[in-house]
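Blinded run. Sample ID left blank on purpose so nobody reads anything into the name before looking at the predicted structure. Input follows.
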Amino acid sequence: MTPDNVANLEVAWVHHTGDSLERPQTTIESTPIVVDGMLYVTTAQVKTQALDAATGKLLWTFDPFAGSSSRRSRGVSRGVSFWKSGGEVRIFTTAGEFLYCVDGKSGKLVESFADGGALNLSTELDAEITVGFSHTSPVVVWKDLILTGGGGGEGPGPAAPGHIRAWDVRTGKRKWIFHTIPRPGEFGHDTWPQDAWRQAGGANNWAGLALDERRGRLYASLGSAAFDFFGGERKGQDLFGNCVLALNAETGERLWHFQTVHHDLWDYDLPAQPMLCDVVRGGQRIEALVQLTKTGLTFVFDRQTGQPLFGVEERPVPASDVPGEYSWPTQPFPIKPPPLSGLTFDESDLTDVSPQAHAFVKEIFDKHRHGPIFTPPSLEGTIVRPGFLGGALWGGGSFDPGLGYVFVNSSENANIMQLVPADKDKGYRYGHTGYLRLFDHEQRAPMRPPWGHLTCIDLRTGDFVWREPLGEDPQYGKTGTRQIGGSCATAGGLVFIAATLDERFRAFDSKSGRELWSTQLNAGGYATPCSYSVDGRQYVVIAAGGGGKQRTKSGDEIIAYALPR
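Blinded prediction complete.
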C-alpha cells in the first residue's frame, strides 16, 4: 500500500464477533496481533478470538465469563500478548482482575499456569485492596517474564496501588515488584506523608508498558495518585504518580523517572504507553522516548538517561483555595514540541459555530471558575481544559523511522470539576459532582473548532510538519471531532486512522498530511488499526465496535482491507 494506490483499497474480509450490546453499550478498543498467520483480537465482551489472518475465518473463541448469564458490560480489553517457545504459543489476555494464559492453537486454558490458567492480579500487591482491579492494556512478555501494570479505584475512598510486577511466563509465580507508591526506605517515599503508603492508591499503569528488548529496559507511563481531584491526604509531589518510569526489566530496579504533573489534581494520567523511537539528529543516532499526555504536552527524552531532548521548564500555575489542599506551585512544560491542545479557556475560546451554541456555553462559563491549564478544582466548580479525555489519549501515536516523524491524534475537550464536602462518616474530606463534560446545546465541544487534529511532529527538530483537522461534523463540515483510538504508520508512506465521531476510516500521506482515502464504517472504529502481510498481500485491520465514550451506536465488526488481487 502506497500513496499512489491506497485509493484502490477494498474490503478483504469482515468478521462479526457476535457480542456487541446497545444496553449497556459496548465498544471494541482492541488492536489485533498476528502470529504465524493467525490474528488474535479481543471483543466487546472481552472474549479473545483467533482468526485466519488471510480470510477472517473464526478458529476459536476463549470466553473468560463462560457460564455467566449477566448482560453487564465487561469493560474493555485493548489487546493480547503472546509468548512462543519451540512449537508452543501462549496467548495472554486480561479480563477484570485476571490474567489468562490460553493455548494459541486451541484456545484452551493452559492449566499449568497460575491457578488453572488464571492469575488473579488483585493479589500479591503487597497490600490488601477492597476495590476492583483491572488490566485493560496488553501485558508485555519478554524472555520468560510477563510484565504487568493495572490498577483500580481513583475516586474518593479506597483505591488500589498501581505497582509494576513481573511474573514467570510458565508458572505465573511473581518474580519482582516495583512499588509505584514508595515504602519507607525506597526512593520517593519522602514525596508523600510518612504513612501514606499504607492506604494510598493510584499511580497506576493502565495505559500500557513499553519494552526496549535489546537493552532489557521497561518503560511505564503512570497515572495520578488517588483521589484524582483532591490531594489533601497526599501532601507532596507524590512520586511516582504521573511519571515516565524506566526500570530494569530483569530485576525491577529503577533507572530513572520524570514526573510530568506534580501533585495531580486533574486526572491527568499519562494515557498512552511510551513510544520508543530512534532518530538521527546532527548525524548522531539517539534512542528517544516520546510520552504523549492528556494535557496535549509532548515530552521527548533520551531513553537511556531520562534527559529531555528539547528542554523542559517549570512554570508557576494557579494555586488552590480549597481548604486542606496543598497544590504544587509549578508544573513542567516542554519547550518543544508545541502543545497539541489548547491550554487556556477564556471568553475568546468559546464556540462560535452558532449564536445559540455560544450563548449556551457562555451561560455555563460565567458560572464557573476558568483560566489556564492547571487551574485547580474548586468548590464552585472549575472548567478543566484540556479535559479528562485529552489532548492525546490511550491510542497514543505512531512512528515512521525513515522520516523521523511521529503522528498523533488529539481532541479538544473540557470538563467541569466541582468538589463537595463529604459527610463526616465517609472517611474522606471531599467528593465531587461527577465527571461532567462541557458541551454546547447540541453535544458539541464548547470551544471554537477545530475540535480534533492529526498532527505530524518531526522528532529531529521538535517542530510540527503538518497538522490537519481530523473528522467531519455533519452540519459544520471539516471541524475535526473528538477521538478515541490511535493511528498506524506504514512503511509505504501512509498513516491509517479511524477514531472519529463521523465513523470513518482514513488514510493520509505521511509526508504531506493529505487525505488519500476514506470509507464509512457501520460503527465507529474506536481502536488502533494494525497492518500485516500474509502470503505477500498486505492487510490493514480495524475493529469497528462503536459505542463507549463516543456514545455512538455499537457494532461488532473486525474489518480487513487490502488492494485488489
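Unblinding after everyone has recorded impressions. The two ends are 12 Å apart (CA to CA).
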